Amino acid sequence: MLQGEHELEVRNMNRNDLQRISRLRTKEARVLLKEGCFLGAYYLLGYAVECALKARIAKQIKRHDFPDRKLIHDSYTHDLGTLLRLSGLETELQKEIKNNRDLEVNWAVIKDWSEESRYLTDILKSKATDLYSAVMGRKDGFLSWVKKRW
C-alpha cells in the first residue's frame, strides 16, 4: 500500500470503523497486559478511548449533512478532554459523576492519557492496570459508559 492510499483510508473511516478499532485496541491491550507489556497496553487503552469518543463524534454527523468545519478540524486531535467536549458528552459525564464516584475516579485516571505515551519507557504495571480498570470496568468503566452513547 502506498503512503497516500493509507492516508485516504484513514480519512474515509466511519463510526463503525472507529467502534471496531476501539474494541480491537482493548483486546490487544488485554493481551499485552497479560504478557507484561505494560507500555503497549497503556498506549492502546488510551487509543481505544480516543476511537470511542471519535465514534461518538461521528454519530453527530447525519448522512447527507455537510459537517461543521470546526468540528471536523478540532476532532483531529488525540486530546481526550477535547474529544469528550466535541462528542457532546461532557455535560452528561459531569452530571453522571455527581452520583457515581467510581466513574469520576475512572475519568480522572483516563483524562491525562496522551498519545505521547507511546514514547514513554517508565509505565509500571500499576499504572497500566489502573488505566485498564478505568477503561474496561464492567460497571463503571469509562468505555462501557461511552459505548451506551456511541
List the helices and strands and how they pair.
Layout: H1 3-11, H2 15-34, H3 38-59, H4 69-75, H5 80-87, H6 90-99, H7 101-110, H8 125-136, H9 142-147
Helix pairs in contact: 2-3, 2-8, 3-5, 3-8, 6-7, 7-8
Architecture overview:
The protein has 150 residues and is an all-alpha fold. 69% of the residues lie in helices and 0% in strands. It has helices at 3-11, 15-34, 38-59, 69-75, 80-87, 90-99, 101-110, 125-136, 142-147. Helix 2 packs antiparallel against helix 8 (125-136) and helix 7 crosses helix 8. The radius of gyration is 16 Å and the shape is globular. The two termini are 31 Å apart.
Record field, number of beta strands: 0
* CATH second-level architecture: Up-down Bundle
Q: Note the beta-strand portion.
A: under 5%
Label the structural class.
mainly alpha
Overall shape: globular
Mean pLDDT: 92
The major β-sheet equals: none
Query: What count of structural domains?
Result: 1
Poorly predicted spans:
none
Q: Helical region count?
A: 9
Termini distance?
31 Å
Give the helix proportion (percent range): 55-70%
Question: What is the CATH first-level class name?
Answer: Mainly Alpha
Q: At the third CATH level, what is the topology name?
A: Four Helix Bundle (Hemerythrin (Met), subunit A)
| H-E order | HHHHHHHHH
Output the radius of gyration.
16 Å
